[in-house]
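Sample intake — Protein Wnt
Collected from: Poecilia formosa
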Amino acid sequence: MNFLPSGICFFLSAATCWLTAKVDASWWYMGTLGSQVMCDNIPGLVNKQRQLCRQHPKVMQAIGAGMKEWISECQHQFRNHRWNCNTTARDHNLFGRLLLRGSREVAFVYAISSAGVVYTLARACSQGDLDSCSCDPTKKGSSRDSKGSFDWGGCSDHVEHAIHFSQIFVDAKERKERDARALMNLHNNRAGRKAVKRFMTLQCKCHGVSGSCSVRTCWQAMADFRRTGDHLRRRYNGAVQVAVNQYGTGFTAAHTHFKRPSKNDLVYLEDSPDYCIRDPQSGSMGTAGRLCSRASRGSDGCEVMCCGRGYDTARVSRTTKCECKFHWCCSVHCRDCQQLVDEFTCKSQT
């Protein structure tokens, strides 16, 4: 099983190393000794994280496998923006020096990664992939909702267990540091976990004569991860710049006209770079070569995306499905058609 490129440790500042360094399928067949050696050699883990890594190698495997999902979601949410959640395989972490800055983009990365851990673990529990958990054992007997009574059945996602493990593992380093950046990370980690729980839904199946629904069997299920991503993207838009209070225990708004952040808000400490020009020191990859829309006035428009540097135009050929016809029964046959279209890409800095 390949998680991410071999030898890369995905490292969220000093907080969390997501077990991608030298991780491949062979580890999981090496037994207890093998997992202990591997956990001891992953850089960035604090003692508590190493202990959990040794005790729960299959959980670590699930986390590593689930990384691709939340990274993909992050890139989907920012696909049309200067910062597009781009990753690099040439650094000690997937986001390079970006994570050294307490910006709102980093706030989103922490929140979406924390949410991704909860989502991944809860799903692995429900699917029976882990020995340490299964379906939510508290969803037993009968209950009621707005439609009446129902019996608990099926397999409810055990989100509370996933949140508990995620909180212990992900937050371990921050709880030792307790400086401004650690408080920021802890807050955004929690906001990410809460976002997954926010979209739990009650799903039911009817039983009875001719679908009369005289008896309902229901279970709690997580919504598609896209809903969590959409929610956190909105929280990113309304993120609050903060400063640590005089006691060093929490936040106050950095400016008097800013609202005080709630537990669901994302918080950040520093302004973001403009991400226009490649700057390894700030973690900016720049927008040179990025596709843009000449007709758009939004963030994906060439004027905004290219930061006023202008853009190049190239005519390219694309293959599309065309002349599709329905054939009885039941298929659709299409032709592959070549279409010439103009593509616009941002110029580099002169």
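Post-analysis note: The two ends are 43 Å apart (CA to CA).
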